[in-house]
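Example record for the data management plan.
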Amino acid sequence: MKRFILILIAAVAAVTAMQAQPPARTANQDKYYVRRATHFDDLPVYRRDIIMLGNSLTDGAEWNELLRNPHVKNRGIIGDIVQGLYERMEPILKGKPRKIFILSGVNDVSHGVDGDSIARAMEKLIVLIKQRSPRTKIYLQSMLPFNTDVQMWKLLKDREQVVIDGNRAMEEVCKRQHVTWINLYPLFVDKNGKLREELTNDGLHLLGPGYLIWRDAILKYTR
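Corresponding structural encoding:
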């Protein structure tokens, strides 16, 4: 009986661990991530550079053209989570860039992570940057709203409050760590708490006008 109970406990633990894992990425997503990450491993970062760090929202913009600055470098990767940013920081930090702009978290939300946990992961990332590159100025940007009325993102359904809670917690992280908080959320949200329909064609990613709003919100910090 004792042996049976131990086996049962082990089985329950295994099921729980599997349930806690984020949804599996598709083969194409994994291939893109690896291509992008290994590409960034080989690209130099210099002290005068401004790094745009994040997930698909960052990945989707031509930042050096938007900001009219050849020293702006895009280090966004589709599907990335906050821990993913942490794990691929070395090629960036060894170059001691002048500034890093971070926007991440919505993929964590889709994996069932709560707002406080996202903020804790973000704080760990910020501490790493400060330790490895103390002169780098850090700008943490809020998560943007999403809109499941435009397209059904099943893993984001009814998770709008997590974005709000996560943003609130990340703002507190910025206060503790003395880094700049940029609250983009109010610029993109409609009266129903969703991403404005005219700024997206899938409820999550931005169309051109959305990137112009984002550009205008951060432009003064890139000087």
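Summary line stored alongside the record: Residues 1-26 have pLDDT under 50 and may be disordered.
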